[in-house]
Amino acid sequence: MSEAFQGQWEQRWHPLRREWVVYSAHRNTRPWSGAAAAAPESSPAYDPKCYLCPGNARARGETNPAYEGVYIFDNDFPVVGPEAPHVEAVPPGADPALYKRGRADGIARVVCYDPRHNVHLGGLSTSSVTALFAAWREQMIEFHKNPSIRFVLIFENRGEIVGVSNPHPHCQIYATNFVFSLVETELAAARDFRSDHNRNLFEGILETELRSGERIVAQNETACAFIPFFARYAYETLIFPRRRHATLATMEDDELFGLAQAFQEVIRRYDGLYNQPFPYVMSILQAPVDGGDYSDYHLHLMLQPPLRRPGLQKFPAGPEIGGGNFMADTMPEDKALEMRQVVLGSHPE
Ligand SMILES: [Zn+2]
What we know:
The protein is α+β, with helices and mostly antiparallel strands. It has helices spanning 126-144, 181-197, 201-212, 253-273, 318-323, 332-340, and strands spanning 9-14, 19-24, 71-74, 106-112, 151-158, 170-176, 216-219, 223-226, 237-241, 280-285, 300-304, 307-309, 312-313, 327-328. α1 packs across α4 (253-273).
């Protein structure tokens, strides 16, 4: 009986999060028929009501310039910002060993990828996507010099399913006075892996994926994208520059180009899966910018699409929310093969 489920039902260790992921793909044998997904509603290239389109007024009175290419501005309603009120570190009457707080200081920015309201990343030229990566690199160089910033999270939410109502292509930057916990966890994992095995954790993962090859989704001279052995979401994809960089600030132009190219190929493969813009949460995971020694950290992009199939969303529930570990019902190898089989049309260079 159990042999029938070989490779379809097992636990895998997630070495970056240091937790188990349980795969039970044997429960999910019904194949998807491949029915055409509903065509997305097309939106105009310019929307007079969009707060991200060129020339439009924003909520707090500022007006966007007639920008071309990438446009970055400070978020009008920042999650972290210089206007955050001062607070006492220990709430009145609280046990200081337990309860502490701080000012929600920092910088929150919005990055528009393109002046056109209706373009998708997959439809932009590779040079435009490279210009976006170069703009992110400029931001990182600036934040490295800012002593009040410890960490920078660059992330994109794409699709209504992850709560985005404005289709104008954009992402956000949170520059904070604390390090986001996933990177804290990865740093601790890399430190322990170094002391236990005298090797770099990230390079170990990258080498293992390249050697196996069965989970690779896209690769070129300077970057590699794969659905990791330990993916939590069905189409979760990691993209690594081949050379180790702690943050984007130190990347060379040709490396940025390769990373942009791999990123864009992943997006185009996503979009080709069901012939519709594929929703995801993308984050660029980088080392802190507080001047510490993070030479063991290897920056990477992480894409976490919530869909398992068209119209079928992974809802974190009992095991995930209640217990903190993910249960997956698809195998990374099968999903990587599916992504490699997407036929890509031509697109602007
Ligand atoms: Zn717009």
